[in-house]
Write a structure and sequence with these properties.
GO molecular function, one term (chain A): 4 iron, 4 sulfur cluster binding
Radius of gyration of chain B: 20 Å
CATH topology of the largest domain in chain A: Rossmann fold
Number of strands of chain A: 12
Number of domains of chain A: 3
Organism (chain A): Sphingomonas populi
Keywords (chain A): 4Fe-4S, Electron transport, Iron, Iron-sulfur, Metal-binding, Repeat, Transport
Number of helices of chain A: 24
CATH superfamily of chain B: NagB/RpiA/CoA transferase-like
InterPro entries (chain B): FTHF_cligase-like_sf (IPR024185), LUD_dom (IPR003741), NagB/RpiA_transferase-like (IPR037171)
Shape of chain B: globular
Oligomer: heterodimer
CATH architecture of chain B: 3-Layer(aba) Sandwich
Protein name (chain A): Lactate utilization protein
Distance between the termini of chain B: 65 Å
Shape of chain A: globular
Order of helices and strands of chain B: HHHEHEEEEEHEEEEEE
Helix content of chain A: 40-55%
Strand content of chain A: 5-15%
Strand content of chain B: 15-25%
């Protein structure tokens, strides 16, 4: 394990508040999802269909990109392409500068986080108002999101209260969560109405109409995107769907898998800027279509990962995520989907620990609304890390030695007998300390082996 | 090479075999809406996740009286924002009318083109007489919906032909679970949603 990852995990495990905070939100999400899935009898068939829709799009991404570009352009939007995160940020900043923007209102977008847009805006001296309540909290705390649906799930209400009192002009006087939400409502409303540019991501890009679909429960996307003069969308190229009918089938799964609702509160399809006679809406709409490694993922055996609709169910159900929270993963995306994406985005050498920090219990794949074989993809990264020699020498030599012995059955059985004899000298039932095993025994006892091996008993005819 | 040429070159732009995209629309997998669509819609609307209320009225002409009753029940003054929408033409003279939307509008009236029984959603589009911002700024969102405009499924919401700037579905009130997972109504948008189902009396 790399020192940096190990340090982050140790810090997360030692933080008693983090575990409670993560458990509250993820536990609630897990329970609500289960109820929603039970209430939708055809959920399994819907997953199969959703996976087929995404596979169809991913196989024909170029075709749908062109179709989307044509439709969006004829609706009056400007379409841009970006190969990398830096290219995407430059396009966004240039549009903001050309519009003379002093402040932008941002509606929560993981793509914005992926390309480092908050940092790019700060460098360009452009003020940024995060309008999603959770994004607002982490902006005040100067932190990164710890979950793709609940970015501030690691914060307790006491911590949120302190932040609001420090930063809001008219903060809450009562120490309740509704009063805190009200304080944020007052504070953010002016920011949204006064912004020059509104920036959003996209949950879906509808190829046949050129529409960009966003979903929120707070309504902050609409409040951030209607008043400003310019609307900029940053979207991954895998967000395409052929038509609204295809989007609808994915929307049914997205809401149920994320929050347990049948549909998000606000589902909006934006097609081009305001029309001449419209009373409100932006004068210009720009859509930045971002590759940032996605076309390479399709060729490198990660096409199935491009099905992801960012619901967060895999992390809510992950035993590792529930213990360490999102920040310990160190990338933009945490949890199982993050452990697959981060090596593709940031390089395997820097993130090879993530595919290893997984029990392969398969829960993520079971709950994934688009049936991404996450454990298989994680195993793929492990194999690649081995092939490329990224595993440390001690691990490589240890496994090589084990493999050498395991290929010689008589020697292997002899070694097992010796190990049983040796280990039982340290305890019967439970072992409290054992040489070379302090990593385990420092925090818990190790079960002592039985007096003889399975193979011995099998050879005697025990069944 | 431009980013566009580079990306499209890598991906290839060959069209999918004819009919393959359409096949993925056939027999959509969705919850059944059996029986009375209006009753199903009203049930979905009343679920805690949606948290909306409703009243059935006979015609648009009855809307002002219904709105006055609603505002009185919530101890609100008789003041509303009514967009310049011919579909909402009625005698609103009993109200103080906001001419332009203000950031803290207490009550906003709107017309929904459709209701969706499957989810209890209301369908709106922007247009010369249909602003979007008021529907998100108001604290109380009061929506007129013709009873005959309640359709079964989300697929039925699509507007044929050229699209407006925004086509949007509102399902209940603005909500958040961002602080410790606790559900709060009225995060940024409306805290109350009241639907006036307009019949044909």
């Amino acid at each position: 394990m790399s020192a940096a990852f190990s340090k982050r995990v140790d810090a997360a495990l030692a933080d008693p508040i983090l575990k409670i905070a993560v458990e509250r939100t993820a536990g609630t999400a897990e329970a609500k999802r289960a109820i929603a899935v039970d209430a939708f009898a055809q959920f399994e068939a819907a997953r199969t269909r959703a996976a087929a829709i995404k596979d169809h799009v991913v196989a024909h991404l170029g075709y749908y990109l062109e179709q989307f570009e044509t439709a969006a352009t004829s609706a009056g939007a400007h379409v841009h392409y970006a190969r990398t995160a830096d290219e995407a940020c430059k396009i966004v900043i240039d549009i903001c500068k050309a519009a003379g923007a002093r402040t932008v209102a941002r509606s929560k977008s993981m793509m914005g986080e992926e390309i480092g847009l908050p940092h790019a805006l700060a460098e360009a001296g452009i003020g940024r108002v995060e309008t999603d309540l959770a994004e607002h909290i982490i902006q005040l705390a100067d932190e990164r999101p710890s979950h793709i649906v609940w970015p501030a799930m690691h914060k307790t209400s006491e911590q949120v209260s302190a932040l609001f009192k420090q930063h809001h002009a008219l903060p809450h006087s009562e120490e309740t969560i509704p009063a805190m939400a009200e304080s944020a409502r007052r504070h953010l409303r002016q920011g949204m109405l006064g912004a020059d540019v509104g920036i959003s991501g996209a949950n879906f890009l509808v190829a046949d109409s050129g529409a960009v679909c966003t979903v929120t429960n707070e309504g902050n996307a609409e409040l951030s995107l209607v008043p400003p003069r310019v609307h900029i969308v940053t979207a991954g190229i895998e967000k395409l769907v052929p038509s609204m009918g295809h989007a609808v089938q994915l929307l049914r799964l997205l809401a149920r898998s994320a929050t347990g609702a049948t549909l998000t509160q606000y589902t909006t399809f934006y097609t081009g800027p305001k029309r001449a006679a419209d009373p409100d809406g932006p004068d210009a709409m720009h859509i930045v279509l971002i590759d940032n490694g996605r076309s390479a993922m399709r060729e490198d055996g990660l096409a199935e990962m491009l099905r992801c609709i960012r619901c967060g169910a895999c992390m809510n159900h992950c035993v590792v995520f529930r213990q360490i929270g999102g920040h310990a993963y160190g990338g933009t995306y945490p949890g199982p989907m993050g452990a697959v994406l981060t090596p593709a985005l940031d390089g395997l050498a820097a993130s090879r620990d993530l595919p290893n920090a997984c029990t392969l219990n398969g829960k993520c794949q079971e709950v994934c609304p688009v049936k991404i074989p996450l454990p298989t993809l994680l195993r793929g990264w492990r194999e690649k890390s081995w092939r490329e020699g990224l595993e440390p020498a001690t691990m490589r030599q240890g496994i090589a030695a084990w493999a050498w012995v395991a290929q010689r059955p008589r020697l292997y059985r002899l070694a097992v007998r010796a190990a049983i004899f040796g280990m039982r000298r340290f305890g019967r039932g439970w072992i409290r300390t054992l040489p070379l095993a302090s990593g385990w025994t420092a925090h818990r006892d190790l079960p002592a082996p039985d007096s003889e091996s399975f193979m011995n008993r099998y050879a005697r005819g025990e069944r | 090479m431009s980013a566009r040429a580079d990306i499209l070159g890598k991906l290839g732009t060959a069209a999918p075999p004819p009919g393959t995209a359409e096949a993925l629309l056939a027999d959509p997998v969705r919850p059944a809406v059996a029986g009375d669509r209006v009753a199903t819609f009203l049930t979905a609307l009343a679920l805690p996740a949606s948290g909306a209320t409703h009243e059935r009225i006979g015609s648009v002409a009855e809307a002002p009286a219904a709105v006055a009753r609603y505002l009185a029940e919530h101890a609100l003054p008789p003041a509303v924002f009514v967009p310049d929408d011919p579909r909402l033409a009625a005698d609103w003279s009993g109200f103080a009318l906001s001419l332009a939307i203000t950031p803290d509008e207490p009550a906003v009236i709107a017309w929904a083109r459709l209701g969706i029984a499957e989810t209890g959603s209301l369908v709106f589009e922007t247009g010369p007489h249909a602003p979007m911002l008021p529907n998100f700024l108001g604290l109380h969102h009061i929506v007129l919906l013709p009873e005959t405009a309640i359709v079964a499924h989300l697929e039925d919401a699509a507007l044929p032909g050229p699209q407006p700037r925004a086509h949007y579905w509102v399902t209940g009130v603005s909500g958040t679970t961002d602080i410790e997972g606790q559900y709060i109504r009225g995060a940024h948008g409306p805290r109350f949603l009241h639907v006036l189902v307009v019949g044909e009396r």
